[in-house]
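ARCHIVE CARD
SHELF: 3
SLOT: left
DATA:
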Amino acid sequence: MQVIEIKGQIRNDLGKKGAREARKQEMIPCVMYGAKEVVHFTTTPSVVKDLVYTPDFKVAEVEVEGKKFKCILKDKQFHPVTDAIQHLDFLMLIEGHPIKVDVPIRFKGVSPGVKSGGKLVQKLRTAKIKALPEKLVDEVTVDISKLEMGQSIRVREIEPGEGIEILNSPGVPIATIEIPRALRSAQQAAAAAEKKK
């Protein structure tokens, strides 16, 4: 599990005016919430870029006034024109309290269908999982080594690992091995020729 360290400064001036002031100083207003406390702080764009601009799931360790909090990024807001980060919401990870997160789906193995000329088309890129913070994983894997041309692999075939519950519907397709048009035409022509015999 990759952990991104973030140093933050406490933010006392809350509300829109305070947030505007923070952005003027090239700082990002952030809020971190969890069990009973809410922490408002600011941080710099360079510190959070590896957490915000990535398809990977990462945990943040936020340090504010000497206190460290393990968190996940819950929400991010961007400027509609400049795409600059406007605000970040963090959720504290509390031991013993399960959490729901989206993690990337990765494939393992080589599909015989791809070897035969088919194309692997991924339909679902992330899986929603529920786990205790200490059991969290940064990805789930699915084995495609038996996937032939024209076949699909579904959520029920994900190997989640101990203490992890997959929340997506089991029948949802993750990936399909598509038959290329040229190959499909050749198969149809062969079938038609076989009928004529």
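SLOT: right
DATA:
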Amino acid sequence: MDLYKYIIDEMAPYKDHIEKFDLWALGEPAIDPHLVERATYAREKGFRRMAIATNVERFDPPIQKSLMELGMETFILSIDATTAENSEKIRQGLDFQRIMSNARSAINLRNKNGYKSRFIIRFILQDGVNSHEWNDFRVYWQEKLDRGKGDDVYAYKEHNWGGYEFK
């Protein structure tokens, strides 16, 4: 936390030039025990347009509520399947039912309490694994989202530097 605060303090004079403040890089932010504290500190220093991208498994209601109350602007929920079987091939070790429950919970919490956060549901298209699920996935999530709040469902084609293929 000390290093994080130092970095935020150093960036603070430039906050008006920072277009977006993402609280993740190549990892899962919801496993960070300091996530809410980090977001709060950045907000107190004047940073805006804050976002996280999460695989949703550990994005549970207490974290959701804390970040929405803080005014987190964007949540990118990475959910890559409509079935547990395909989800668990792609995101090995994660619980599909928990992912779905947490995602629906976050959207319901936002809608019930009038938080201004928006949701982007992100789907990575992977030939031979989940591409055939895209249309059903898109319809399912579009029915739950609110385009008027900036919500959307996106699909991206898989990019794989390592050449690994799911079996």
